[in-house]
Design goal:
It comes from Acanthochromis polyacanthus. Residues 545-567 are annotated as: Actin-binding. The protein is of the alpha+beta class. The relative contact order is 0.07.
Length: 1027
């Protein structure tokens, strides 16, 4: 935790005990604000956890966070609800003493969520088995059930617990949760029949109506509209945006099944809930002071039971019955859950317990009644217990460490507790007496009796007893108590009725006769024969609170104080006025003052020395002597004054936070120099280790390689010696040129073996590799066969890897090679260029031409220049090859179509020009004569024509000149001469003169196509490539 002190200016301190100005409420709230703005919602006051509701989801409750806090010392990590849960669990396991966690705060402060997080932590981190997992599931699933029946939407909280809950979680000797038990306190039964504006009844009513199946609602006689029921319209708030009653209903139904409710029990439970709604719809009318039921759809025999009553009494009796039915059903529900959580293993009767107390915090409203009186009385008792236990634990720690205990002055609220609970004189006793006395007792007579009995008490004020200034803010029907947390005005209206909480005997008789099994358990028949008046609500609450105090006193307590930052439930909003109000009512400043009365900081010697030992040369890097001597040496070096610290038996106590802050700042400065030294040492060690590793590896490789070489040399020497020793080898060398005979037989075999092994090691790597070992005379013929087979195998292996597209390209290149290689000068230029399917894009060809071609598929297209037969004028044209003919097109016209069958031949020169002549029959009327064309891709174009027209053998390569038919009976001549650049013109003799450009005799580099063609032609001259 000390590591966070370096950032205290930004995020505050993690423990309020370390506040320098700990008596300032403003400093306390400012520290809360700093941490809240950084989403740090948890802060300690010693071992007390203060939690501020963030009103948003924070990523601090994952399994990784649970593991981070599991088994870790309380102060080693930042404050968290998991740290409190784990500390209680470890204390229970190690010390064998039962624990309890007290969670308190205003409605909406996050008490219920805090208890859920603790339960989830135990469910995830504790040991588990199949039976234990069932208990874990039931513990977790008890929450949604109790929330449905005991929580409601209030003005301050959409999921406010309207009852107090104490839950015992039972653990076996292995530390696994094996059972549980729940005690409920002071259910707000009045909510069943009345809600303030903007509030709702208990969740279960709305969940049943919104989520219940149609068949279920029909059996219960309910409509899917909460506005139809009088008990649900008082607050005028049937829908809440943050609550999904339909999905919550599904969660509750599943939870009831997990806990162990049978279908019959669920059905009977829902029957009771529905009957309360129906009972609320019973309407009364009447004359002359008597009441009768006016709603035809409701229970008719209630008229006979309530006929002696007037209208107001009848309505009160109806509401009392509704509250009694719901309240007793809730108690039955808690008992049923307890039965499902009960620890039933008789083999291990002893178990440890961690208790969770989720109880209402101090409440101060505009209008405070009987419920607020009981709640605030409960908080007075808890505050009394809290101060006593806090002082007790402080005193015990001081005594255990041998530190002199200095008495702490604090406000002892026992005087207020006595004012409320003292026998015969306390407010509860006076209230009970007024409820029991005969005569015309009322709330105002109760107030008058209070004035007479406790009017002189310093913490009690009424309008009658107050001074003039106080009377202006108090009503005549109010009394004021000065609680530890502040002043509260209570309105006495309804005190007697709520305290009596009586139900007419005839209504009890009806409930006893019910066929509903749950109701028969809730309303015991023995009640009818018992003549003793039941205890009042206040007396019952006082007795249950006394039992709770006994339970808590028997356990080791931990505390969680919950604070809500604003009333609007907005994330990030910090309402200072509201928080100051809660800090006061939760008694946090009193708690801090008690905790800081002695020493602000205490740590075990080993922890303190481990953290700060680097600040003293004598303790760094390790202290070898006693821990107490090491700490003493360290603090002397740091310059601690005697009044700033005390050394106990196992801990150091530091009085002032500024002393700890100075030490922490010194450590932060020291870290930089330590980091530099550590980095230098690590780099040196790392490089040295790397060098040694490389050196060791190099030596190992060198030794291994030397061994290999030595073994090879020794092996060769042995083989040579053995060979020389064999006289037949020498004889064989002498007779090596003779016919095979016994004298040279071994030598010839050795020569053959040596050649074959050498050949195996030096086979050609590819088809271009012409190398081949020189064979001995006896193996020349075999060597030649092997060389051919090897080459043939490499060629076929290469061919099999060729893709269909590349195969087609090579076939065209082979045809071009057969036609033009060593015959036409510009052939080498075409070798590295791949043939393409067309030299014209789709937009280059006029759509009319494509339309004229019709269904004929175009196989090749290329731009060409056509020379007129008369005058040899060049004209741009497009040559299109289809499956049946060659077409010459000009813009949108088909100028000439030459069927492949009518094509007599093709002539081209041997020079590097691009002219060629298509010869057609002279007697064909459709043709005007031979066609003279020029193409920039003449090799590709002629190869394509030869393939499409199947005229491979009809291409004539001429030297000097080409004759062609100009018309019927007329001839033209094209003269070809070499030159520096291409020139085409009509000569004076009437011939077409073509001067060709320079040809390239060699190509610097060619594609694999050329390699394959050149290499394979000799092998595949008469074959096609393999399929």
């Amino acid at each position: 935790m000390e590591s966070a002190l370096t950032a205290r200016d930004r995020v505050g301190v993690q423990d309020f005990v370390l506040l320098e100005n700990y008596t300032s409420e403003a400093a306390f709230i400012e520290n809360l604000r700093k941490r809240f703005k950084e989403n740090l919602i948890y802060t300690y006051i010693g071992s007390v956890l203060v939690s501020v509701n963030p009103y948003k989801d924070l990523e601090i409750y994952t399994k990784n966070h649970m593991e981070r806090y599991r088994g870790v010392n309380f102060y080693e990590v930042s404050p968290h609800i998991y740290a409190v849960a784990d500390n209680s669990y470890r204390s229970m396991r190690t010390e064998g003493k039962d624990q309890c966690i007290l969670i308190s705060g205003e409605s909406g402060a996050g008490k219920t969520e805090a208890s859920k997080k603790i339960l989830q932590y135990y469910a995830i981190t504790c040991p588990a088995s199949e039976q234990v997992q069932t208990v874990k599931d039931r513990l977790l699933q008890s929450n949604p059930v109790l929330e449905a029946f005991g929580n409601a939407k209030t003005l301050r909280n959409d999921n406010s617990s309207r009852f107090g809950k104490y839950m015992d979680i039972q653990f076996d000797f292995k530390g696994a949760p094996v059972g549980g038990h729940i005690i409920n306190y002071l259910l707000e039964k009045s909510r069943v029949v009345h809600q303030n504006h903007g509030e709702r009844n208990f969740h279960i009513f709305y969940q049943l109506i919104e989520g219940g199946e149609e068949d279920l609602l029909r059996r219960l006689g309910l409509e899917r509209n909460p506005l139809q029921y009088q008990y649900l319209i008082k607050g005028n708030c049937p829908k809440v945006s943050s609550i999904n009653d339909r999905s919550d209903w599904k969660v509750v139904r599943k939870a009831l099944t997990v806990i162990g409710f049978s279908e019959d029990e669920v059905e009977e439970l829902l029957n009771i809930i529905a009957s309360v709604l129906h009972l609320g719809n019973v309407q009364y009318g009447g004359e002359e002071g008597s009441a009768c039921i006016t709603s035809d759809t409701q229970i008719k025999y209630l008229a006979r039971l309530m006929s002696p009553l007037n209208l107001e009494q009848a309505s009160s009796a109806r509401d009392a019955l509704s509250k009694a039915v719901y309240g007793r059903t809730f108690t039955w529900l808690v008992n049923k859950i307890n039965a499902s959580l009960a620890y039933t293993d008789d083999s291990h009767k002893h178990y440890s317990v961690i208790g969770l107390l989720d109880i209402y915090g101090f409440e101060v409203f505009q209008h405070n009644s009987f419920e607020q009186f009981c709640i605030n009385y409960c908080n007075e008792k808890l505050q009394q217990l809290f101060i006593e236990l806090t002082l007790k634990s402080e005193q015990e720690e001081y005594e255990a460490e041998g530190i002199t205990w200095e008495p702490v002055q604090y406000f002892n609220n026992k005087i207020i507790c006595d004012l409320v609970e003292e026998k015969f004189k306390g407010i509860i006793s006076i209230l009970d007496e007024e409820c029991l006395r005969p005569g015309d007792a009322s709330d105002f007579t109760f107030l008058e009796k209070l004035e007479d009995t406790v009017g002189g008490h310093p913490h009690f004020v009424t309008h009658k007893l107050a001074d003039g200034k106080t009377r202006k803010v108090m009503g005549r029907e109010e009394f004021r108590l000065l609680h530890y947390a502040g002043e509260v005005n209570y309105n006495v209206n309804g005190f007697l009725d709520k305290n009596n909480d009586l139900l007419f005997r005839n209504l009890k008789e009806v409930m006893v006769m019910s066929e509903n099994k749950i109701l028969t358990q809730c309303f015991d028949r023995e009640e009818l024969s018992d003549k003793k008046r039941p205890d009042t609500a206040a007396t019952q609450f006082k007795a249950s609170l006394a039992k709770l105090m006994e339970i808590l006193m028997s356990k080791e307590p931990s505390y969680v104080r919950c604070i809500k930052p604003n009333d609007s439930k907005q994330a990030g909003r910090f309402d200072e006025v509201l928080i100051r109000h809660q800090v006061k009512y939760l008694g946090l400043m009193e708690n801090l003052r008690v905790r800081r009365a002695g020493f602000a900081y205490r740590r075990r010697y080993e922890v303190f020395l481990q953290r700060y030992k680097s600040l003293c040369p004598d303790t760094w890097p390790n202290w070898q002597g006693k821990l107490s001597d090491g700490v003493s040496t360290l603090v002397k070096h740091l310059g601690y004054k005697p009044e700033e610290y005390k050394l106990g038996r196992s801990k150091i106590f530091i009085r002032f936070p500024k002393t700890l802050f100075a030490t922490e700042d010194a450590l932060e400065t020291r870290k930089h120099s330590l980091a530099t030294k550590l980095q230098a040492g690590w780099k040196g060690y790392s490089q040295k280790s790397k060098y040694q590793k490389l050196r060791t590896s190099a030596i190992a490789v060198q030794a291994w390689w030397r061994g290999i070489l030595a073994k090879r040399r020794a092996q060769r020497r042995r083989q040579a010696a053995n060979t020389i020793r064999r006289y037949t080898f020498v004889k064989g060398f002498i007779y090596r040129h003779k016919e095979r005979c016994p004298e040279n037989e071994y030598f010839l075999d050795y020569v053959r073996y040596s050649f074959l092994m050498n050949l195996r090691r030096n086979l050609p790597k590819n088809v271009l590799d012409k190398s081949w070992p020189t064979p001995p005379a006896a193996l020349k013929e075999a060597s030649e066969h092997l060389r051919k087979l090897c080459m043939q195998n490499m060629v076929w292996s290469y061919c099999k890897k060729i893709s269909p597209e590349w195969k087609h390209q090579m076939e065209q290149k082979m045809i071009a090679s057969e036609l033009f290689k060593d015959k036409k000068d510009n052939y080498p230029q075409s070798v590295p260029k791949l043939f393409v399917s067309t030299r014209l894009n789709g937009e280059d060809i006029n759509p009319k031409v494509l339309q004229a071609l019709g269904s004929e598929k175009m196989k090749y297209a290329v731009p060409v220049t056509k020379y007129d037969r008369k005058g040899y004028k060049p004209r741009p044209r497009q040559l299109l090859l289809t499956g049946n003919s060659a077409v010459i097109a000009e813009e949108g016209k088909l100028k000439q179509r030459i069927d492949y069958g009518a094509l007599k031949g093709i002539s081209v020169s041997s020079l590097s020009d691009g002219l060629f002549v298509l010869h057609v029959p002279s007697d064909d009327n459709k043709q005007k004569g031979d066609v003279v064309l020029q193409s920039d891709h003449v090799i590709e174009t002629l190869t394509k024509i030869a393939i499409c027209a199947e005229k491979i053998n009809n291409i004539n390569i001429n030297q000097g000149s080409i004759k062609f038919a100009v018309g019927q009976g007329k001839e033209g001549i094209i003269d070809f001469t070499p030159g520096s650049e291409l020139l085409v013109a009509k000569a004076k003799n009437g011939h077409l003169s073509v001067v060709s450009g320079l040809s390239l005799s060699a190509v610097s580099h060619t594609l694999p196509v050329d390699l394959c063609c050149d290499i394979f032609l000799s092998w595949l001259s008469s074959r096609r490539l393999p399929d």
